[in-house]
Amino acid sequence: MDRPKKRDKLRAVYSMSCIYENGEKKGAEGIREVSSMCSISEMTDEYLLSRLHDRPRLKLERKKSNDDMSLSLYDSAHSLDGRSAWDTPVFSIKDSFDPNPMVTEAWEALCRSQVYFRGKPVGTIAACDPASDEVANYDQVFVRDFVPSALAFLMKGEPEIVKNFLLKTLHIQGQKKTIDRFKLGDGAMPASFKVLHNPIKETDTIIADFGASAIGRVAPVDSGFWWIILLRAYTKSTGDHSLAERPDCQKGMRLILSLCLAEGFDTFPTLLCADGCSMIDRRMGVYGYPIEIQALFFMALRSALSMLKHDSEGKEFMDKIVKRLNALSFHMRSYFWLDLQQLNDIYRYKTEEYSHTAVNKFNVIPDSIPDWIFDFMPLRGGYFVGNVGPAHMDFRWFALGNCIAILSSLATPEQSNAIMDLIESRWEELVGEMPLKICYPAMESHEWRIVTGCDPKNTRWSYHNGGSWPVLLWLLTAASIKTGRPQIARRAIDLAEARLLKDGWPEYYDGKSGRFIGKQARKFQTWSTAGYLVAKMMMDDPTHVGMISMEEEKHMKPPLRRSSSWT
Ligand code: GLC
Questions:
Q1: Would you tell me which of 31, 96, 291, 329 could form a disulfide with 401, CB atoms 3.0–4.6 Å apart?
Q2: Which of 139, 222, 281, 398 is the pocket-test mutation for ligand 1 (most atoms within 8 Å of CB)?
Q3: Residue identifier of the C-alpha nearest atom 6 of ligand 1
Q4: Is Hydrolase found in the keyword set (predicted)?
Q5: From CA 185, how far away is CA 256, in angstroms rounded?
Q6: What is the pLDDT of residues 320-375, one digit of tens each?
Q7: Is 62 helix (H, G, I), strand (E, B) or coil?
Q8: Of all atoms in ligand 1, which is nearest to the CA of residue 278?
Q9: pLDDT tens-digit map of 157-187
Q10: What is the pTM of this model?
Q11: Cα torsion at 90, 93, 97, 103 (round to 10°)?
Q12: Is residue 394 helix, strand or coil?
Protein backbone atom coordinates (compact mmCIF):
# COMPACT_ATOMS: atom_id res chain seq x y z
CA MET A 1 0.00 0.00 0.00
CA ASP A 2 1.28 3.45 -0.79
CA ARG A 3 1.62 5.31 2.42
CA PRO A 4 -0.20 8.63 2.24
CA LYS A 5 1.84 11.76 2.69
CA LYS A 6 2.31 12.82 6.27
CA ARG A 7 0.41 15.81 7.43
CA ASP A 8 2.51 17.18 10.20
CA LYS A 9 -0.10 19.49 11.56
CA LEU A 10 -2.57 16.71 12.02
CA ARG A 11 -0.26 14.19 13.55
CA ALA A 12 -0.33 15.19 17.19
CA VAL A 13 -3.59 13.80 18.45
CA TYR A 14 -3.84 10.38 16.95
CA SER A 15 -0.23 9.65 16.32
CA MET A 16 0.34 7.71 19.50
CA SER A 17 0.28 4.12 18.61
CA CYS A 18 0.25 1.11 20.85
CA ILE A 19 3.47 -0.60 19.97
CA TYR A 20 3.51 -4.00 21.52
CA GLU A 21 5.92 -4.90 24.30
CA ASN A 22 8.19 -7.00 22.16
CA GLY A 23 8.25 -4.32 19.54
CA GLU A 24 6.41 -6.61 17.21
CA LYS A 25 3.49 -5.28 15.22
CA LYS A 26 1.92 -7.28 12.48
CA GLY A 27 -1.18 -6.78 10.46
CA ALA A 28 -3.87 -9.42 10.79
CA GLU A 29 -3.64 -12.25 8.32
CA GLY A 30 -5.50 -11.81 5.12
CA ILE A 31 -5.95 -8.08 5.48
CA ARG A 32 -4.12 -5.13 4.23
CA GLU A 33 -1.39 -4.08 6.61
CA VAL A 34 -2.26 -0.95 8.54
CA SER A 35 0.91 -0.12 10.36
CA SER A 36 0.60 1.02 13.92
CA MET A 37 3.10 3.67 13.04
CA CYS A 38 0.68 5.12 10.53
CA SER A 39 -1.48 7.38 12.61
CA ILE A 40 -5.07 8.04 11.73
CA SER A 41 -4.17 11.65 11.24
CA GLU A 42 -1.68 10.68 8.62
CA MET A 43 -4.34 9.12 6.53
CA THR A 44 -5.49 11.21 3.65
CA ASP A 45 -9.09 11.39 2.56
CA GLU A 46 -8.09 9.06 -0.21
CA TYR A 47 -6.99 6.52 2.32
CA LEU A 48 -10.13 6.97 4.41
CA LEU A 49 -12.20 6.47 1.31
CA SER A 50 -10.33 3.31 0.50
CA ARG A 51 -11.08 2.05 4.02
CA LEU A 52 -14.68 2.94 3.46
CA HIS A 53 -14.56 0.72 0.43
CA ASP A 54 -13.29 -2.17 2.53
CA ARG A 55 -15.79 -1.64 5.24
CA PRO A 56 -19.52 -2.34 5.17
CA ARG A 57 -21.02 -0.12 2.54
CA LEU A 58 -22.39 2.89 4.27
CA LYS A 59 -23.98 5.86 2.77
CA LEU A 60 -23.86 9.10 4.62
CA GLU A 61 -26.36 11.81 4.11
CA ARG A 62 -26.04 15.25 5.51
CA LYS A 63 -29.28 16.98 6.17
CA LYS A 64 -29.34 20.59 7.24
CA SER A 65 -31.74 21.12 10.07
CA ASN A 66 -32.48 24.52 11.57
CA ASP A 67 -29.96 24.53 14.32
CA ASP A 68 -27.69 21.64 13.66
CA MET A 69 -26.30 19.34 11.11
CA SER A 70 -27.96 16.00 11.43
CA LEU A 71 -26.52 12.98 9.84
CA SER A 72 -28.18 9.77 8.90
CA LEU A 73 -26.52 6.50 8.28
CA TYR A 74 -28.02 4.00 5.97
CA ASP A 75 -26.72 0.68 4.91
CA SER A 76 -26.65 1.15 1.18
CA ALA A 77 -27.50 -2.51 0.76
CA HIS A 78 -30.97 -1.47 1.91
CA SER A 79 -31.14 1.96 0.45
CA LEU A 80 -29.48 1.72 -2.90
CA ASP A 81 -30.44 4.60 -5.05
CA GLY A 82 -27.88 4.15 -7.71
CA ARG A 83 -25.27 6.26 -6.01
CA SER A 84 -22.16 4.93 -4.45
CA ALA A 85 -20.53 5.89 -1.18
CA TRP A 86 -18.22 8.12 -3.19
CA ASP A 87 -20.98 10.52 -4.15
CA THR A 88 -21.83 11.46 -0.63
CA PRO A 89 -19.87 13.67 1.72
CA VAL A 90 -17.78 11.93 4.32
CA PHE A 91 -16.52 13.43 7.55
CA SER A 92 -12.79 13.33 7.42
CA ILE A 93 -10.22 13.50 10.15
CA LYS A 94 -8.97 16.63 8.38
CA ASP A 95 -12.33 18.37 8.90
CA SER A 96 -12.70 17.28 12.44
CA PHE A 97 -9.19 17.70 13.75
CA ASP A 98 -9.58 18.14 17.44
CA PRO A 99 -6.49 19.11 19.38
CA ASN A 100 -8.15 17.98 22.59
CA PRO A 101 -5.41 16.75 24.97
CA MET A 102 -8.03 14.55 26.59
CA VAL A 103 -7.94 12.29 23.55
CA THR A 104 -4.18 11.89 23.85
CA GLU A 105 -4.48 11.16 27.57
CA ALA A 106 -7.21 8.63 26.92
CA TRP A 107 -5.07 6.81 24.34
CA GLU A 108 -2.18 6.75 26.75
CA ALA A 109 -4.36 5.25 29.48
CA LEU A 110 -5.82 2.71 27.06
CA CYS A 111 -2.41 1.61 25.86
CA ARG A 112 -1.18 1.27 29.45
CA SER A 113 -4.12 -0.97 30.22
CA GLN A 114 -3.09 -3.63 27.72
CA VAL A 115 -2.54 -7.13 29.04
CA TYR A 116 0.00 -9.43 27.39
CA PHE A 117 0.14 -13.18 27.08
CA ARG A 118 3.46 -14.50 25.88
CA GLY A 119 4.35 -11.13 24.45
CA LYS A 120 1.11 -10.57 22.60
CA PRO A 121 -1.63 -8.16 23.68
CA VAL A 122 -4.79 -10.11 24.49
CA GLY A 123 -7.01 -7.58 26.21
CA THR A 124 -7.22 -4.60 28.53
CA ILE A 125 -7.35 -4.61 32.31
CA ALA A 126 -10.63 -3.38 33.85
CA ALA A 127 -9.01 -0.60 35.88
CA CYS A 128 -5.51 0.58 36.69
CA ASP A 129 -6.08 2.91 39.58
CA PRO A 130 -2.63 3.62 41.05
CA ALA A 131 -4.22 5.12 44.17
CA SER A 132 -6.35 2.13 45.07
CA ASP A 133 -4.99 -0.87 46.98
CA GLU A 134 -8.28 -2.62 46.73
CA VAL A 135 -7.85 -4.40 43.43
CA ALA A 136 -10.53 -7.12 43.79
CA ASN A 137 -10.97 -8.44 40.26
CA TYR A 138 -10.37 -5.12 38.51
CA ASP A 139 -6.94 -6.41 37.47
CA GLN A 140 -8.63 -8.84 35.08
CA VAL A 141 -9.68 -8.61 31.45
CA PHE A 142 -13.48 -8.58 31.46
CA VAL A 143 -15.13 -9.67 28.24
CA ARG A 144 -17.79 -6.95 28.34
CA ASP A 145 -15.29 -4.28 29.41
CA PHE A 146 -13.00 -5.12 26.52
CA VAL A 147 -15.67 -4.36 23.90
CA PRO A 148 -15.19 -0.55 23.85
CA SER A 149 -11.40 -1.05 23.98
CA ALA A 150 -11.66 -3.39 21.02
CA LEU A 151 -13.78 -0.93 19.06
CA ALA A 152 -11.27 1.83 19.77
CA PHE A 153 -8.41 -0.33 18.48
CA LEU A 154 -10.40 -1.36 15.41
CA MET A 155 -11.28 2.22 14.62
CA LYS A 156 -7.63 3.12 14.97
CA GLY A 157 -6.67 0.41 12.50
CA GLU A 158 -5.02 -1.86 15.08
CA PRO A 159 -7.02 -5.07 14.91
CA GLU A 160 -4.40 -7.48 16.20
CA ILE A 161 -5.25 -7.16 19.89
CA VAL A 162 -8.90 -7.82 19.04
CA LYS A 163 -8.06 -10.93 17.08
CA ASN A 164 -5.82 -12.17 19.90
CA PHE A 165 -8.58 -11.55 22.41
CA LEU A 166 -11.18 -13.39 20.35
CA LEU A 167 -8.90 -16.40 19.97
CA LYS A 168 -7.79 -16.39 23.60
CA THR A 169 -11.33 -16.30 24.96
CA LEU A 170 -12.32 -18.97 22.44
CA HIS A 171 -9.55 -21.15 23.83
CA ILE A 172 -10.80 -20.46 27.38
CA GLN A 173 -14.31 -21.46 26.30
CA GLY A 174 -12.90 -24.86 25.36
CA GLN A 175 -11.60 -25.51 28.89
CA LYS A 176 -13.39 -27.83 31.26
CA LYS A 177 -15.64 -25.64 33.38
CA THR A 178 -16.95 -26.69 36.75
CA ILE A 179 -18.19 -24.81 39.78
CA ASP A 180 -18.09 -26.99 42.88
CA ARG A 181 -19.35 -30.25 41.44
CA PHE A 182 -21.43 -28.70 38.69
CA LYS A 183 -20.30 -28.73 35.08
CA LEU A 184 -21.12 -25.59 33.08
CA GLY A 185 -22.40 -25.64 29.52
CA ASP A 186 -19.74 -26.09 26.81
CA GLY A 187 -20.63 -22.76 25.23
CA ALA A 188 -20.15 -20.68 28.38
CA MET A 189 -17.74 -17.80 27.92
CA PRO A 190 -15.88 -16.36 30.91
CA ALA A 191 -16.81 -13.12 32.64
CA SER A 192 -13.12 -12.32 32.88
CA PHE A 193 -9.63 -13.77 32.81
CA LYS A 194 -6.28 -12.94 34.31
CA VAL A 195 -2.77 -13.52 32.99
CA LEU A 196 -0.38 -14.75 35.66
CA HIS A 197 3.24 -14.09 34.89
CA ASN A 198 5.93 -16.18 36.52
CA PRO A 199 9.09 -14.07 36.27
CA ILE A 200 11.39 -16.93 37.36
CA LYS A 201 10.15 -19.52 34.92
CA GLU A 202 9.24 -16.78 32.46
CA THR A 203 5.87 -18.33 31.77
CA ASP A 204 2.41 -16.90 31.38
CA THR A 205 -0.71 -18.77 32.44
CA ILE A 206 -4.35 -17.79 32.34
CA ILE A 207 -7.01 -18.20 34.97
CA ALA A 208 -10.56 -17.58 33.90
CA ASP A 209 -13.65 -16.77 35.91
CA PHE A 210 -16.96 -18.18 34.74
CA GLY A 211 -18.78 -16.92 37.81
CA ALA A 212 -17.19 -19.14 40.44
CA SER A 213 -15.09 -16.30 41.88
CA ALA A 214 -17.38 -13.42 40.97
CA ILE A 215 -19.20 -11.79 43.87
CA GLY A 216 -22.47 -13.64 44.25
CA ARG A 217 -21.50 -16.32 41.69
CA VAL A 218 -23.31 -14.46 38.93
CA ALA A 219 -23.47 -16.02 35.47
CA PRO A 220 -22.01 -13.85 32.66
CA VAL A 221 -24.76 -14.49 30.11
CA ASP A 222 -23.70 -11.42 28.14
CA SER A 223 -20.10 -12.61 27.53
CA GLY A 224 -20.96 -15.05 24.74
CA PHE A 225 -23.18 -12.48 23.05
CA TRP A 226 -20.49 -9.79 23.20
CA TRP A 227 -17.99 -12.29 21.80
CA ILE A 228 -20.14 -12.94 18.72
CA ILE A 229 -20.91 -9.22 18.31
CA LEU A 230 -17.20 -8.41 18.52
CA LEU A 231 -16.33 -11.07 15.97
CA ARG A 232 -18.70 -9.36 13.56
CA ALA A 233 -17.26 -5.94 14.37
CA TYR A 234 -13.76 -7.27 13.68
CA THR A 235 -14.88 -8.77 10.39
CA LYS A 236 -16.73 -5.65 9.31
CA SER A 237 -13.92 -3.33 10.26
CA THR A 238 -11.03 -5.27 8.74
CA GLY A 239 -12.76 -7.04 5.87
CA ASP A 240 -10.92 -10.14 7.10
CA HIS A 241 -13.43 -12.99 6.92
CA SER A 242 -10.82 -15.64 7.53
CA LEU A 243 -11.08 -15.36 11.33
CA ALA A 244 -14.85 -15.88 11.52
CA GLU A 245 -14.57 -18.69 8.96
CA ARG A 246 -12.03 -20.65 10.98
CA PRO A 247 -13.52 -23.98 12.12
CA ASP A 248 -12.79 -23.19 15.79
CA CYS A 249 -14.60 -19.84 15.55
CA GLN A 250 -17.56 -21.47 13.81
CA LYS A 251 -17.66 -24.10 16.55
CA GLY A 252 -17.36 -21.46 19.30
CA MET A 253 -20.33 -19.63 17.84
CA ARG A 254 -22.38 -22.81 17.56
CA LEU A 255 -21.64 -23.70 21.20
CA ILE A 256 -22.84 -20.30 22.40
CA LEU A 257 -25.93 -20.60 20.23
CA SER A 258 -26.64 -24.11 21.54
CA LEU A 259 -26.88 -22.67 25.03
CA CYS A 260 -29.38 -19.98 24.19
CA LEU A 261 -31.40 -21.74 21.51
CA ALA A 262 -31.95 -24.97 23.46
CA GLU A 263 -35.57 -25.97 23.78
CA GLY A 264 -36.96 -25.94 27.29
CA PHE A 265 -40.18 -25.17 29.13
CA ASP A 266 -40.33 -21.59 27.90
CA THR A 267 -43.51 -19.99 26.68
CA PHE A 268 -41.67 -16.87 25.52
CA PRO A 269 -38.90 -16.40 22.93
CA THR A 270 -36.99 -14.18 25.37
CA LEU A 271 -34.12 -15.66 27.36
CA LEU A 272 -34.70 -16.48 31.02
CA CYS A 273 -31.83 -15.35 33.24
CA ALA A 274 -30.78 -15.12 36.85
CA ASP A 275 -30.06 -11.75 38.46
CA GLY A 276 -26.66 -10.12 37.86
CA CYS A 277 -26.07 -11.81 34.51
CA SER A 278 -24.76 -8.80 32.58
CA MET A 279 -23.19 -5.37 33.11
CA ILE A 280 -25.37 -5.11 36.20
CA ASP A 281 -23.64 -8.00 37.89
CA ARG A 282 -25.21 -7.72 41.32
CA ARG A 283 -28.68 -8.38 42.59
CA MET A 284 -30.80 -5.56 41.22
CA GLY A 285 -34.11 -7.21 40.43
CA VAL A 286 -33.15 -7.87 36.82
CA TYR A 287 -33.82 -11.61 36.94
CA GLY A 288 -36.34 -13.00 34.49
CA TYR A 289 -36.17 -11.40 31.06
CA PRO A 290 -33.93 -8.34 31.38
CA ILE A 291 -33.87 -5.97 28.42
CA GLU A 292 -30.07 -5.83 28.32
CA ILE A 293 -29.82 -9.57 27.70
CA GLN A 294 -32.73 -9.68 25.26
CA ALA A 295 -31.22 -6.90 23.14
CA LEU A 296 -27.75 -8.47 23.18
CA PHE A 297 -29.29 -11.86 22.40
CA PHE A 298 -31.05 -10.36 19.39
CA MET A 299 -27.90 -8.65 18.16
CA ALA A 300 -25.76 -11.76 18.67
CA LEU A 301 -28.28 -13.89 16.75
CA ARG A 302 -28.21 -11.47 13.84
CA SER A 303 -24.43 -11.28 13.95
CA ALA A 304 -24.10 -15.07 13.99
CA LEU A 305 -26.52 -15.35 11.09
CA SER A 306 -24.23 -13.21 8.99
CA MET A 307 -21.12 -15.22 9.87
CA LEU A 308 -22.21 -18.87 10.08
CA LYS A 309 -21.07 -21.00 7.20
CA HIS A 310 -23.72 -22.53 5.00
CA ASP A 311 -22.56 -26.08 5.74
CA SER A 312 -24.89 -28.66 7.27
CA GLU A 313 -24.09 -27.74 10.90
CA GLY A 314 -24.26 -24.02 10.18
CA LYS A 315 -27.54 -24.32 8.29
CA GLU A 316 -29.24 -26.11 11.16
CA PHE A 317 -28.45 -23.16 13.41
CA MET A 318 -29.38 -20.62 10.78
CA ASP A 319 -32.89 -22.06 10.54
CA LYS A 320 -33.30 -21.90 14.29
CA ILE A 321 -31.94 -18.36 14.40
CA VAL A 322 -34.33 -17.06 11.75
CA LYS A 323 -37.33 -18.50 13.59
CA ARG A 324 -36.15 -17.17 16.92
CA LEU A 325 -35.44 -13.71 15.55
CA ASN A 326 -38.94 -13.46 14.20
CA ALA A 327 -40.53 -14.54 17.45
CA LEU A 328 -38.19 -12.43 19.55
CA SER A 329 -38.69 -9.22 17.62
CA PHE A 330 -42.47 -9.66 17.66
CA HIS A 331 -42.44 -10.29 21.40
CA MET A 332 -40.13 -7.40 22.25
CA ARG A 333 -41.77 -4.87 19.98
CA SER A 334 -45.21 -5.81 21.23
CA TYR A 335 -44.79 -6.42 24.93
CA PHE A 336 -41.67 -4.55 26.05
CA TRP A 337 -42.50 -1.33 24.25
CA LEU A 338 -43.92 1.47 26.36
CA ASP A 339 -45.11 4.91 25.37
CA LEU A 340 -47.92 7.14 26.53
CA GLN A 341 -50.58 5.22 24.61
CA GLN A 342 -49.33 1.88 25.81
CA LEU A 343 -49.07 3.11 29.39
CA ASN A 344 -52.63 4.29 29.21
CA ASP A 345 -53.71 0.89 27.90
CA ILE A 346 -51.95 -0.88 30.78
CA TYR A 347 -53.45 1.60 33.26
CA ARG A 348 -56.90 0.51 32.09
CA TYR A 349 -56.09 -3.20 31.83
CA LYS A 350 -58.58 -5.76 33.02
CA THR A 351 -57.00 -8.59 34.96
CA GLU A 352 -57.63 -12.32 35.31
CA GLU A 353 -58.36 -12.67 31.61
CA TYR A 354 -58.37 -16.28 30.58
CA SER A 355 -57.67 -17.74 27.10
CA HIS A 356 -55.73 -16.61 24.06
CA THR A 357 -58.05 -13.66 23.53
CA ALA A 358 -56.66 -11.93 26.64
CA VAL A 359 -55.55 -8.35 26.03
CA ASN A 360 -53.52 -8.26 29.22
CA LYS A 361 -51.40 -11.23 28.18
CA PHE A 362 -49.17 -11.30 31.27
CA ASN A 363 -51.84 -10.40 33.80
CA VAL A 364 -50.05 -7.21 34.81
CA ILE A 365 -51.99 -5.67 37.68
CA PRO A 366 -52.44 -1.91 37.03
CA ASP A 367 -51.85 -1.23 40.72
CA SER A 368 -48.26 -2.39 40.20
CA ILE A 369 -47.55 0.59 37.91
CA PRO A 370 -45.13 2.80 39.88
CA ASP A 371 -46.13 6.43 40.49
CA TRP A 372 -43.01 7.94 38.91
CA ILE A 373 -43.82 6.66 35.43
CA PHE A 374 -46.90 8.87 35.04
CA ASP A 375 -44.78 12.03 35.23
CA PHE A 376 -41.76 10.55 33.50
CA MET A 377 -43.49 9.42 30.31
CA PRO A 378 -43.36 12.27 27.79
CA LEU A 379 -46.02 12.97 25.17
CA ARG A 380 -43.55 12.06 22.47
CA GLY A 381 -41.18 9.19 23.06
CA GLY A 382 -41.03 5.71 24.44
CA TYR A 383 -38.67 2.90 25.39
CA PHE A 384 -38.30 -0.79 26.01
CA VAL A 385 -39.09 -1.50 29.66
CA GLY A 386 -36.67 -3.41 31.86
CA ASN A 387 -38.44 -6.75 32.09
CA VAL A 388 -41.71 -8.48 31.21
CA GLY A 389 -42.88 -11.76 32.71
CA PRO A 390 -45.94 -13.25 34.37
CA ALA A 391 -47.67 -10.48 36.37
CA HIS A 392 -44.40 -8.61 36.15
CA MET A 393 -43.48 -5.49 34.31
CA ASP A 394 -40.36 -3.66 35.41
CA PHE A 395 -40.97 -0.13 34.19
CA ARG A 396 -37.41 1.06 34.82
CA TRP A 397 -35.39 2.50 31.95
CA PHE A 398 -32.11 0.73 31.19
CA ALA A 399 -29.66 2.55 28.94
CA LEU A 400 -27.61 -0.31 27.52
CA GLY A 401 -30.57 -2.44 26.43
CA ASN A 402 -32.29 0.49 24.73
CA CYS A 403 -29.16 1.60 22.87
CA ILE A 404 -28.45 -1.96 21.73
CA ALA A 405 -32.08 -2.23 20.62
CA ILE A 406 -31.49 0.77 18.36
CA LEU A 407 -28.14 -0.46 17.04
CA SER A 408 -29.37 -3.99 16.32
CA SER A 409 -32.66 -2.76 14.82
CA LEU A 410 -34.59 -4.69 17.39
CA ALA A 411 -36.34 -1.34 17.65
CA THR A 412 -38.16 -0.25 14.51
CA PRO A 413 -36.97 3.08 13.06
CA GLU A 414 -39.98 4.74 14.69
CA GLN A 415 -39.23 3.16 18.05
CA SER A 416 -35.57 4.14 17.73
CA ASN A 417 -36.56 7.73 17.18
CA ALA A 418 -38.98 7.56 20.07
CA ILE A 419 -36.18 6.35 22.36
CA MET A 420 -34.04 9.32 21.30
CA ASP A 421 -37.06 11.62 21.84
CA LEU A 422 -37.33 10.28 25.36
CA ILE A 423 -33.65 10.90 26.06
CA GLU A 424 -33.99 14.45 24.80
CA SER A 425 -37.11 15.26 26.73
CA ARG A 426 -35.92 13.57 29.94
CA TRP A 427 -32.35 14.84 29.69
CA GLU A 428 -32.11 15.93 33.34
CA GLU A 429 -33.15 12.50 34.54
CA LEU A 430 -31.27 10.27 32.08
CA VAL A 431 -28.16 12.30 31.34
CA GLY A 432 -27.98 15.01 33.97
CA GLU A 433 -24.43 16.18 34.57
CA MET A 434 -22.67 13.01 33.45
CA PRO A 435 -23.80 10.66 30.71
CA LEU A 436 -25.39 8.20 31.16
CA LYS A 437 -27.70 6.77 33.82
CA ILE A 438 -27.39 3.00 33.83
CA CYS A 439 -31.04 2.77 34.87
CA TYR A 440 -33.78 5.10 36.00
CA PRO A 441 -35.09 5.65 38.61
CA ALA A 442 -33.19 4.41 41.66
CA MET A 443 -34.78 2.12 44.22
CA GLU A 444 -34.96 3.41 47.75
CA SER A 445 -35.92 2.35 51.26
CA HIS A 446 -38.03 -0.75 51.55
CA GLU A 447 -37.86 -1.57 47.85
CA TRP A 448 -34.04 -1.28 47.89
CA ARG A 449 -33.89 -3.57 50.93
CA ILE A 450 -36.07 -6.25 49.40
CA VAL A 451 -34.81 -6.09 45.82
CA THR A 452 -31.05 -5.67 46.33
CA GLY A 453 -30.85 -7.59 49.59
CA CYS A 454 -29.68 -4.40 51.37
CA ASP A 455 -26.67 -4.04 49.05
CA PRO A 456 -24.55 -1.16 50.44
CA LYS A 457 -22.86 -0.63 47.06
CA ASN A 458 -26.19 -0.22 45.32
CA THR A 459 -27.76 2.44 47.52
CA ARG A 460 -30.04 4.93 45.74
CA TRP A 461 -28.46 6.84 42.84
CA SER A 462 -25.21 4.94 43.17
CA TYR A 463 -23.43 2.26 41.10
CA HIS A 464 -26.00 0.03 39.40
CA ASN A 465 -28.89 1.63 41.22
CA GLY A 466 -29.28 4.81 39.19
CA GLY A 467 -25.56 5.64 38.96
CA SER A 468 -24.11 7.36 35.87
CA TRP A 469 -21.61 5.36 33.79
CA PRO A 470 -19.31 7.20 31.37
CA VAL A 471 -18.76 3.97 29.40
CA LEU A 472 -22.33 4.24 28.14
CA LEU A 473 -21.34 7.35 26.19
CA TRP A 474 -20.21 5.26 23.22
CA LEU A 475 -23.56 3.51 23.02
CA LEU A 476 -25.46 6.77 23.19
CA THR A 477 -23.21 8.24 20.51
CA ALA A 478 -23.64 5.26 18.20
CA ALA A 479 -27.42 5.35 18.69
CA SER A 480 -27.51 9.12 18.08
CA ILE A 481 -25.57 8.80 14.85
CA LYS A 482 -27.62 5.85 13.66
CA THR A 483 -30.87 7.75 14.21
CA GLY A 484 -29.45 10.81 12.48
CA ARG A 485 -29.31 12.89 15.66
CA PRO A 486 -25.62 13.42 16.40
CA GLN A 487 -26.36 16.66 18.22
CA ILE A 488 -27.55 14.51 21.14
CA ALA A 489 -24.17 12.80 21.30
CA ARG A 490 -22.38 16.13 20.92
CA ARG A 491 -24.17 17.49 23.99
CA ALA A 492 -23.35 14.38 26.01
CA ILE A 493 -19.70 14.37 24.95
CA ASP A 494 -19.38 18.01 26.01
CA LEU A 495 -20.60 17.07 29.47
CA ALA A 496 -18.15 14.18 29.72
CA GLU A 497 -15.29 16.37 28.52
CA ALA A 498 -15.93 18.87 31.27
CA ARG A 499 -15.12 16.29 33.94
CA LEU A 500 -13.79 12.89 32.95
CA LEU A 501 -10.10 13.69 32.64
CA LYS A 502 -10.10 16.03 35.63
CA ASP A 503 -11.77 13.35 37.74
CA GLY A 504 -9.37 10.60 36.59
CA TRP A 505 -11.73 8.54 34.39
CA PRO A 506 -14.00 7.21 37.14
CA GLU A 507 -15.95 4.03 36.72
CA TYR A 508 -19.25 5.67 37.69
CA TYR A 509 -20.80 8.78 39.22
CA ASP A 510 -23.37 9.05 42.00
CA GLY A 511 -26.30 11.31 42.69
CA LYS A 512 -29.60 12.10 41.04
CA SER A 513 -27.87 14.07 38.30
CA GLY A 514 -24.53 12.25 38.41
CA ARG A 515 -22.67 15.11 40.07
CA PHE A 516 -20.43 13.10 42.41
CA ILE A 517 -17.64 10.66 41.67
CA GLY A 518 -18.99 7.26 42.72
CA LYS A 519 -18.56 6.26 46.34
CA GLN A 520 -16.52 3.19 45.46
CA ALA A 521 -15.73 4.05 41.86
CA ARG A 522 -12.33 2.98 40.56
CA LYS A 523 -10.30 5.68 38.83
CA PHE A 524 -8.67 4.98 35.47
CA GLN A 525 -11.44 2.59 34.64
CA THR A 526 -10.48 1.40 31.17
CA TRP A 527 -13.92 1.29 29.65
CA SER A 528 -14.53 4.90 30.70
CA THR A 529 -11.51 5.97 28.61
CA ALA A 530 -12.26 3.58 25.77
CA GLY A 531 -15.93 4.56 25.68
CA TYR A 532 -14.93 8.20 25.37
CA LEU A 533 -12.46 7.48 22.56
CA VAL A 534 -14.98 5.41 20.64
CA ALA A 535 -17.56 8.18 20.97
CA LYS A 536 -15.04 10.73 19.67
CA MET A 537 -13.92 8.59 16.76
CA MET A 538 -17.48 7.83 15.70
CA MET A 539 -18.28 11.53 15.68
CA ASP A 540 -15.16 12.17 13.64
CA ASP A 541 -15.93 9.39 11.18
CA PRO A 542 -19.53 8.16 11.43
CA THR A 543 -18.84 5.26 9.08
CA HIS A 544 -17.29 3.54 12.11
CA VAL A 545 -20.82 3.01 13.44
CA GLY A 546 -21.28 0.36 10.75
CA MET A 547 -19.20 -2.16 12.65
CA ILE A 548 -21.61 -2.14 15.56
CA SER A 549 -24.89 -1.32 13.88
CA MET A 550 -27.38 -3.24 11.75
CA GLU A 551 -30.20 -2.16 9.49
CA GLU A 552 -33.75 -3.43 9.84
CA GLU A 553 -34.61 -6.67 8.11
CA LYS A 554 -37.59 -5.94 5.98
CA HIS A 555 -39.24 -9.28 6.77
CA MET A 556 -39.34 -8.44 10.47
CA LYS A 557 -42.16 -5.97 10.20
CA PRO A 558 -43.63 -4.70 13.46
CA PRO A 559 -47.13 -5.80 14.39
CA LEU A 560 -49.86 -3.25 13.79
CA ARG A 561 -50.52 -1.28 16.92
CA ARG A 562 -52.15 1.91 18.05
CA SER A 563 -49.22 3.40 19.89
CA SER A 564 -48.81 7.13 19.44
CA SER A 565 -45.09 7.01 18.76
CA TRP A 566 -45.54 4.56 15.90
CA THR A 567 -46.68 6.38 12.88
C1 GLC B 1 -18.34 -4.11 37.84
C2 GLC B 1 -19.41 -3.86 36.80
C3 GLC B 1 -19.24 -4.81 35.64
C4 GLC B 1 -17.84 -4.71 35.07
C5 GLC B 1 -16.81 -4.93 36.17
C6 GLC B 1 -15.41 -4.67 35.71
O7 GLC B 1 -18.52 -5.35 38.44
O8 GLC B 1 -20.67 -4.00 37.37
O9 GLC B 1 -20.20 -4.53 34.66
O10 GLC B 1 -17.67 -5.62 34.06
O11 GLC B 1 -17.06 -4.05 37.26
O12 GLC B 1 -15.25 -3.35 35.32
A1: 291
A2: 281
A3: 126
A4: yes
A5: 9
A6: 999 999 999 999 999 999 999 999 999 999 999 988 889 999 999 999 999 999 99
A7: strand
A8: 9
A9: 999 999 999 999 999 999 999 999 999 999 9
A10: 0.84
A11: 120
A12: strand
